[in-house]
Design goal:
The protein has 14 helices and 10 strands. By secondary structure, it is of the alpha/beta class. α2 (about 85-95) packs across α10 (about 270-285), α8 (about 230-235) crosses α12 and α11 crosses α12 (about 310-320).
Length: about 375
Amino acid sequence: MKRITGLLSLLALVAVVLGACAAPPTPQVIRETVEVPVQQTVEVPVQQTVVVPVEETVEVPVTAPAPEVTVVRVSMGYIPNFQYAPFYVGIEKGYFAEEGLQIVMDYGTEEDAVKKVASGNVQFGTSSGDSIVLARTNGIPVKYVMRWYNGWPTGVFSLAEKNIKTPQDLVGKTVGIPGPFGANWLAWQAMLAQQDIDPDSINIQFIGFTQVAAIEGGQVDAAAGYTVNEPVQLRGQGREVNVIKTSDYISLVPIGMFSSDEYIAQNPEVVQKFVSALLRSIKTTVEDPEFALEAVISAVQFSGGDNRAGTQAGLEAVSEYWANPGPYDDETWTYTQDVMFDLGMITQKVDVADFYTNEFVEAAGQ
């Protein structure tokens, strides 16, 4: 029994040893997908804008603010006419606009001009020197700021057939005068006084501004007016005309621009701009008559078309009085005031320095 048990034990031991020396078992393959995080560097082409500081001057158009515009009213002392060509030219050329001024032309009479300027309703007026003398000697504070004309442009005209060529030829004749006011009235009286002619020896009729019609209709033998206006109209109609120029016998203060003492004191910069622009306008009018003519035709009704030739003739005539505008002088003012005093047109005299100032003309380089 014991021998069988030992033999079994030996056999078991041999089996164990042989099992240990046998070939290993075939491995089992298992297929499985496993997600594993992977860090990877990939080079990818990239287009990139890089801002690099650069010093550069760039011109950028800038619209300047519109300049302040000052409205300036000007009393003209007459109806729209080529006599105001410098204003039409200055407006067309933009001279006033360049100074920041908008011109409003107020037509009327010289007497109206003084009243309107003195009251402040308008800022400037145009007239002959007698208007300022009358105003200042009556306590109305208005003053010239520039001289426009270089001489007194009034006269007495008639048809050549009347054979009136000198002041003496007027004796016994009928003469039409706009009225007892203004440049024509003063020049008429001053000329008669200078020539020692009795005013009562001439028949005077006050006819308003109808001189041409009165002459043509035979209502008067002669008429007082501006030598650059009515006589030119008659010549344009083919009539021969004789003209007696008052400036051949007397020397009165010529036409200019005036304002009130108050406005001048409170608005010297506006006065300067106005004077500078008008002086420039007068110069252009004289130097460029063709442009001036077109400006007048554009501004004044019935001055073109069939009337173009007459307008051109009048403009040419008056332009002679516009050469060398600028300052005034004491001598002419003294003479004018003395004449008016002697004629009884004024009852007192004032300092001639009160009649005008040349400061704005001088500042404008004239």
